[in-house]
Amino acid sequence: MYLVTGASGFIGKHVLDSLTKRGETIDCTVVRGPTKGPSSTAERLPRRSSNIHTA
Questions:
Q1: Residue 50 in 3-state DSSP?
Q2: Which of 12, 22, 10, 1 has the alpha carbon at shortest distance from 53?
Q3: 12 vs 3, 29, 44, CA distance in Å?
Q4: Residue 18: its pLDDT value, please?
Q5: Cα distance between residue 22 and residue 32, in whole Å
Q6: Max alpha carbon distance in the chain (Å)?
Q7: pTM exceeds 0.85
Q8: What is the b/e burial string over 13-50, where b = at least 16 CB atoms within 10 angstroms of the residue's CB?
Q9: DSSP state, 39?
Q10: Are 5 and 54 a contacting pair, CB within 8 Å?
Q11: Phi/psi-derived region of residue 38, left when phi > 0, alpha when psi is between -120 and 50, beta in every other case
């Protein structure tokens, strides 16, 4: 199972396309509005076997 952050962005969409074509299970996150930085977002995310953060 993969967790993809930034899934609605340009790179994230391509990552999702690639993973779904491979038949992978995916969770996605989209954070709207200001955050206190990437580490504050990452701390709130569930642990998965693979996390993919797209910038």
A1: strand
A2: 12
A3: 11, 10, 19
A4: 92
A5: 28
A6: 34
A7: no
A8: eebbeebeeeeeebeebeeeeeeeeeeeeeeeeeeeee
A9: H
A10: yes
A11: alpha
